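Input (structure):
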């Protein structure tokens, strides 16, 4: 896959959060929230990133999700067990309807933008 921004669950430092970005080298919107605060001195540079990612996963509305995708130029949305445990519920219908499934195995799906599903 071409390099692009990936959305994945946001969580604690030195945990499985940010695993996709860590193991692929793809940039992510935000990985370890507190780790970033430690390095930057405050949460201010993060802005609304954590809440925006929560919105991306939990909203049922495509327009609201697309606004988050556009804001951070997100190309890939990773949905796996950690996302399902972090965001309740993960509303995947909008991804199924408007993005292409690039990978599916077990409980993991990767949705791609720029490969939007046909209407």
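Output (sequence):
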């Amino acid at each position: 896959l071409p390099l692009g921004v990936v959305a994945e669950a946001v969580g604690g430092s030195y945990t499985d959060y940010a695993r996709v970005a860590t193991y692929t080298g793809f940039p992510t919107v935000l990985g370890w929230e507190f780790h970033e605060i430690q390095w930057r001195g405050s949460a201010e540079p993060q802005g609304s990133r954590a809440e925006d990612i929560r919105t991306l996963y939990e909203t049922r509305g495509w327009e609201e999700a697309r606004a988050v995708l556009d804001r951070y130029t997100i190309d890939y949305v990773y949905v796996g067990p950690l996302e399902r445990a972090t965001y309740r519920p993960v509303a995947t219908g909008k991804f199924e309807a408007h993005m292409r499934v690039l990978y599916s195995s077990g409980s993991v799906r990767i949705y791609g933008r720029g490969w939007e599903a046909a209407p």
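Notes: Helices lie at 19-24, 33-40, 49-58, 62-71, 81-86, 93-98. The two ends are 23 Å apart (CA to CA).
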